[in-house]
Task: structure prediction
Amino acid sequence: MKETTTKKYHEDLKENGYGLSRLQRNGELGSDPGSILTVETRLMKVTAKDVQDAAKKYFNMNNYFQAVLKPEK
Result:
């Protein structure tokens, strides 16, 4: 997933629309505009444990719906 996200990030950087939208979003949130240039560095610091911890924090496993799609024959 990191590789795919990094590749997409590099492709997006070539588009003016991406930079403009990120600058607008950072302005709305009051974030540092320079953070656009550190996405890859921050992404590489994310570990599997970070994702697991976030899932435990934000997903209530006592209140969820699981569906299985079965194709028609």
